[in-house]
Every structure is written in structure tokens, then in C-alpha cells.
Amino acid sequence: MSHKTSAGLLIALLAAQTHFAPSLFANSIRYDFLQGSTTTVVGGSPLVTAIFEDVAPNQVNLTITAPGLTGNSFLRALYFNLDPTMSAPGLTFNQTASSGGVPAAVLSSNDSFKTGGGGKFDVKITFATAPVFIAGNSVVYSITGLAGISAESFAFQDTVSAGSSQSYAAASIQFPTALVVINSTPESSSVPDTGATVWLLVLALLALGLVSRGYRFVPSLVPARAGSAR
Amino acid sequence: MKRTLSLFSQGRPPLNAVNLALLTSVAVCLAGSPGIAQTFSFTNSTEILINDTGNPPTAASPYASALNVIGIDGVIDHITVSLLGLSHDFPSDLDIALVGPTGQVAMLMSEVGGNTKLPVSGLTLTLDNSATDFLPIDSTLVSGVFKPTRQFPTLSFDFPAPAPAGTANAPADLSLFNGTNPNGTWQLFVIDDSSPDSGTIASGWSVSIFTVPEPGAASLLGLGLAGFAFWRFRK
Questions:
Q1: Residues of B in Cβ contact (< 8 Å) with A160
Q2: pLDDT in tens, B155-212
Q3: Which of A31, A39, A194 is nearest to A123 (CA)?
Q4: Cβ A177 vs Cβ A192: under 8 Å
Q5: ipTM score here?
Q6: What pTM was estimated for this model as a whole?
Q7: Residue B229, helix vs strand vs coil
Q8: What is the pLDDT of residues B30-54, one digit of tens each?
Q9: A87 touches chain B (CB under 8 A)
Q10: B157 vs A: CB within 8 A
Q11: CB atoms within 10 A of CB B191
């Protein structure tokens, strides 16, 4: 294989990777619902955690756990907002995994759910009261149905209401003496995407292979042979 | 000489001063008793537009909707209030308060009709302390007669002026108006406390006022006449 042919092959591979490969990083949006007025997790566990994670184009996974709900407290409902440029009724939630088998109902409709006063959310997930959703339970939903849906699509605030601050997400938790609504703010993180990692590995191996055969990646692509003249 | 008090002599009622005073005092006392009530209804049929903005609470138009009451003798025994033709996409956005002519403030309905979007159209709601049921907190509103109802005892915001300060925390209780003078301007204040839904009260509102004569003046007159009659008898 001539060096020009190899160079052309490498350029073609790079172009294909850029065009066809998935995003190098998958985003996730995490909501921790904390007891009291704290807004960061400092030791201990949040009462409830909800994580939206990009898994594929136009597909997001939502994982819900309640690590801090023990004793007589349990999760009643979760509220989320959708990117206002998208239409909440178009969302499809498929439960793909669960632990504990707590039934839950998912509703999605633009600006349709209040926690009781306050602004309006687009998604409401209501959990059964028997059995109840507590520590040790989990549920995973695959969310599809809207082009362009991503984890970031669930990092928006509810509608404006008098006397209340806007909120990104809320959890309605039944404590022994009262039903309490706890708000949360999103934490965004990016992790290397599995598909992109494979691509990078292939490119790296190809590059190593070409280098090992004595080719240098310079515009002139002169074979690296000591003492040779062009 | 033994005296006897008799209204009749030889089968005919004597029209002397004593008997006339006695009869008059009894009639006046009866007229002043709580058992005789009258009912008056007043309506403002102008549509109330329930507006919505990005800066709630949003006042309706008009704000307030006024209703003038005149010519009623006596004081309020009790009142009922009717909202005529209520439509709204998210009724729990609504807070509706009534201010009476002498300054009493009562909340008619606040944050009722569902925490989920449950639109209503063309309802007639009558608020009456003596109703059996409260308005539903977390289900669809329907036409009918209900007790004044608020979901929360207080709100974290107040009604915009010119509603009296503290209107948002007024009790859901129409008995506040009992015993007051009904004549004057009654005001209905309607606000929407959450965007983006709006509505209307298409046919306005009405107030039904149940009155009794003021007990003080009538009873005193009756007692006075009875006292005069007794004095005359003893003489």
C-alpha cells in the first residue's frame, strides 16, 4: 500500500468517525432531594435521587431511587419539567427495570401539575401507597417519543407563580406527620460515551499500526527512512 | 275594690288607652322579633375577565367588580354569593374574595378545583355557609352550592391593591357579614396566582342578602309601650 493510499484511507476514516460516530460524551442530569434546607449532599444520603441520562440519540433513561427514605417516610410523587420548546404529551415512558415492584403512574402534559400551590410542571410520576417506595426500591424508565430529547431536556424550571420561587424538580414525600414537597436543582455531568470510546480505540490502533510501518503523518508523507533522498 | 285586668267587657273589646297600649306593644315586639326576615338579591352581570400574565398574581378585569346595595332596612342575617358562568383552564389558580360595605373581607374560594389541570366551563357556584359540602380541593369543580373554601389557611402573597391589605389571608366564612348594614358597595376581587392559564366569569356575580330588622329600636319601643300600659293599669 503506497503512503498516499494509506494517507487517504486515514483521512477517510477520520471523516467517517466525525460524521457517523456518536457524541464523545453522554450527558446526565441528576436531582438530589435533600431533607431540610440543604442544597448539597454533605455526607449521608439524599432522600430521593432522580438521574436522567443520555443512552442513545432521542432516548433518555430516568433512574429513581430513595436511599434516604427509611422508617415511615415514603415517596408519593415526583415532578419534572420539559424543555418548553418540546411537547410533553409526546413523551413515552417505558419502565425497563425496577426493584421492589412499587407501581407508579406517569403523566406528561404541558404545565399541568402543581405540587399544591406554586408553579406548574410537565411530568408527574405518582407512586403507590401500598407497597411504598423507600430505600432499596428503584425504577428505571426509558424515555422516548420526541426528536432531540436528551437529559438536558429535563433541566428547566416550572411556570411562574405568585409567592413561590421557580423550581426544576420536586418530590412529594410522605413523612409520619405531614406531606412535604422538596425541590431540587439539577447537577449536570458528562461521561465518556461507550460508542465514542470504541471509535477512539480503533483510531488509536490504526494510528499505531501505520506508525509501526514507518509512516509519518506530515503533509508530504515522506517515508521515514533514515538517509533516503526524495 | 278588686281590680281585674280584662281585655273584654260584656263580650266587646274596650278601646281604652291601656288596652290600646298593650296591643301596640305586643305588635311592635312581634315585629322586632328574629323570626321575620326578608331576602334581597342584587346582581352585577358584567363579565369578569380572569387575566393571566408572566408576573402573577394577576388581577381580573374589572378589579374589583362592584355591586351597589341600597334601600334595605335591617341588618344582615346571612348572605350567599353566586359566581355566574365560571370558566377556567386551571381553577386552582384562582383566589376570589368578597369585601362588604362595612369593610369585612371573606375568601370565597382559593386554590380549589385540582392540583392537576382540570378545566371547567360555564359553572354556577353558590357559596353558602350553610351548604353541606366544601368545594373540592383536588378534583374537578362542578356547579352547585358549597361552603366557601380555601386550600391553604394563608397565602405567601397578597391581593394587589385596591383589595384591602391582608385579603389573601381572609377566612372562608360569610358569617363575617352577619349583623352588619348591607347597604353600600360590595366588591368582588378575583386574581389568578399562577401562569399561564386564564378564564372568565361570563355572567358576573350576585349576592343574596337575608335580613332581619334591627332588634334594638323595635324592642325598646315595645317595652316602653308595655311599661306605659302597666302603669296606667295600676293607676
A1: 54-56, 194-195
A2: 999 999 999 999 999 999 999 999 999 999 999 999 999 999 999 999 999 999 999 8
A3: A31
A4: no
A5: 0.76
A6: 0.76
A7: helix
A8: 554 444 678 999 999 999 999 999 9
A9: no
A10: yes
A11: 27
